[in-house]
Predict the 3D structure of the following.
Amino acid sequence: MLDTLEYTSVSGQKSAPSITLYSLSTCGFCKRAMAFLEANGFAYRYVHMDKLPLDTKNEAKRILKERYQADVAFPFATLGENEHLVGFIEADWKRTLGI
């Protein structure tokens, strides 16, 4: 189901890991996370969850929670198939992404 969402792709020099960002269009932390990824040259894709129909958003959150065994808060970033980041704490993102 997550594969059917309409993502917006952002290009960058670093394509690994494969980053998908689930965000809210009005979220300051989400905007900072996106700026961080771009400033550090990461390619990523994102979807603004608040722009999705309620049923679709709820199903996507349920799948993310089940797959990553974590509560979904925004931003929620998936790194490849197994890793994830919840919220934007720059030090955590730097450590996880090897910066």
